Amino acid sequence: MPAPVLLASAAAAAIALYATAYEPFAIRLRRLRLNCPRLPTEFDGFTILQLSDLHMSKMGRRERRVTRMIRDLSPDILAITGDLAFDDVSGRQLAAMALGARPREGAFAISGNADVRHPGFYAGVRRVMREAGIRFLENEHVMLRRGGASIVIAGVDDPHSGRDDLGRAVEGAPDDRFTLLLSHTPAIIVAAIEVGADVVLSGHTHGGQLALPFIGPLYTRSGHGKGLAAGLLGGESLRKVIDLDPGRTQVYVSRGIGSSFLPLRFLAPPEIALLELRRG
């Protein structure tokens, strides 16, 4: 066999090994600070641990690593942004793993497209996670209070499946309050800007799951192409993607933890996000 063919075959084998045996388990903990002009002084330094797209079926190598990484981080809240687990057994394991972070002021979850695709299994997942103390935000919101100040935590059912009702989710919430919105997909961003959300936390894209050097993600399902594949966007960077002035709205799109369709990742490493909100 000619040398170039041998080299190409070896390179392909190395890439396949990396994409299946290494990168899917190379989970990163990303720490970000978001400056938020409407954030009340009482909430300055508020922290959010975001877990997204676990697609959990068992307590495996990846899940054990997540457990170690988040243990006792003690964020103010935990936000699990969809594509949770396959059945009630893995849902119970997910809840125990996530709550090991010891959130001080609550744990919240929303549905993703992989959840609502199998409503019978999702009902079991939702039940056991609720029993563990995780609140599901299903087109609704809660108010968190500190002293005389409050913020809104809102969540919508999976927009990818057309189950979201953002109007109902924020109905009754004061217009002048800082609003954190949980949405499985960032495709909701324009509607979120219209209702005045300050920060949107999403996932769904997996950062493309497969990306190429100089090209980027091959497929994102973000609703806005590669521009919303992953990361934090606001101001001019978000305006360039959606061709609309986002005002104060910022969005963070997590690459998530698990994978879908194929159990691999390439140049789109999984991640956990710990976000700190600062007034300013």
Summarize this entry quickly:
This protein has 8 helices and 14 strands. By secondary structure, the protein is an alpha/beta fold.
Give an overview in words.
It is a single chain. This protein is of the alpha/beta class and 280 residues long. It has one domain (3-279): 4-Layer Sandwich (Purple Acid Phosphatase, chain A, domain 2). It is 28% helix and 25% strand. It is built from 8 helices and 14 strands. The chain has helices spanning 3-22, 61-70, 88-99, 113-116, 119-132, 166-170, 189-194, 235-242, and strands spanning 28-36, 46-51, 77-81, 107-110, 135-136, 140-146, 149-155, 179-182, 199-202, 211-212, 216-217, 231-234, 250-253, 271-279. The strands form 3 sheets. Strands 1-14-2-3-4-5 form a 6-stranded mixed beta sheet, with helices on one face. A 6-stranded mixed beta sheet has the order 6-7-8-9-13-12. Helix 3 (88-99) links the parallel strand 3 and strand 4. The longest helix is centred in the first third of the chain and has 20 residues, at 3-22. It is globular, with a radius of gyration of 19 Å. The mean pLDDT is 94.
Which helices and strands appear, and what pairs or packs with what?
Blueprint: H1 3-22, E1 28-36, E2 46-51, H2 61-70, E3 77-81, H3 88-99, E4 107-110, H4 113-116, H5 119-132, E5 135-136, E6 140-146, E7 149-155, H6 166-170, E8 179-182, H7 189-194, E9 199-202, E10 211-212, E11 216-217, E12 231-234, H8 235-242, E13 250-253, E14 271-279
Parallel strand pairs: 1-14, 2-3, 3-4, 4-5, 7-8, 8-9, 9-13
Antiparallel strand pairs: 2-14, 6-7, 10-11, 12-13
Helix pairs in contact: 3-5
